[in-house]
Amino acid sequence: MRTIPPLGYQLVHAGEITVMSSILLAVQVTVPNTGTTWNWVGTAIIIGSCLLVLLLAGWSIQYPHVGTKMPLPFSPLFNRPSVATFLAAMSFGHIIGVAAVLGLTNIGIL
User: Fold this and answer.
1) Per-residue three-class SS string for 53-73
2) Are residues 25 and 47 in the same domain?
């Protein structure tokens, strides 16, 4: 017969006893609520970072013109990128933008 530790939360599943440590339950209370409401400021930061990365991608990617060209309205401004270059730039722009929004939110600017 197994004994259950006194500082645990007992879960019974298919005849087996699983013990969840009460330390995990205590940590839940100390985690701050980061679920802020959505606003347009974060959207503008992500759009700006995506456009900045798209401007820089045409000159920094080794082969930006390999493949089908992306039909952009100001194509010479963006150095006529291919679809792959466009997708890579948008992906990296979103990563940079989300990091910027989260960082600015954590330090209290947003």
Assistant:
1) HHHHHHHHCCCCCCCCECCCC
2) no
- Residue 74 CB coordination number (10 Å): 6
d(CA 107, CA 98): 14
84: tokens are 């792959």
Residue 12 to residue 1: CA distance in whole angstroms: 15
Please, which residues have CB within 8 angstroms of residue 37's CB and are 6 or more apart in sequence?
none
Q: Identify whether residues 46 and 92 lie together within a single domain.
A: yes
Average pLDDT, consecutive stretches of 10 residues, N- to C-terminus, the chain (110 residues): 51 55 60 67 94 88 84 78 90 95 86
Could you tell me the pTM of the whole model? 0.62
Q: Is 33 helix (H, G, I), strand (E, B) or coil?
A: coil
Instruction: Write out the residue range of the structural domain in which residue 84 sits.
Output: 40-106
